[in-house]
Backbone:
């Protein structure tokens, strides 16, 4: 697995988790997938992604998008 795939998998998990929590716990949890989506858009334009930096430090090999 590369950092790129790890970031995509993590973002997908966060989005699904936020939707499930907003349906089962409290509607304000919808802010979590909104935050994840905004972070993905920001990373597409700037190349800055905190999750990618964390995955690199964990030793996951770099991919094409986040080197």
Residues:
């Amino acid at each position: 697995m590369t950092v790129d795939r790890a970031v995509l998998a993590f973002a997908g998990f966060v989005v699904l988790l936020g939707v499930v929590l907003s349906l089962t716990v409290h509607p304000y949890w919808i802010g979590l997938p909104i935050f994840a989506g905004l972070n993905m858009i920001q990373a597409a334009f700037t190349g800055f992604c905190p999750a990618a930096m964390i995955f690199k430090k964990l030793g996951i090999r770099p991919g094409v998008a986040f080197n």
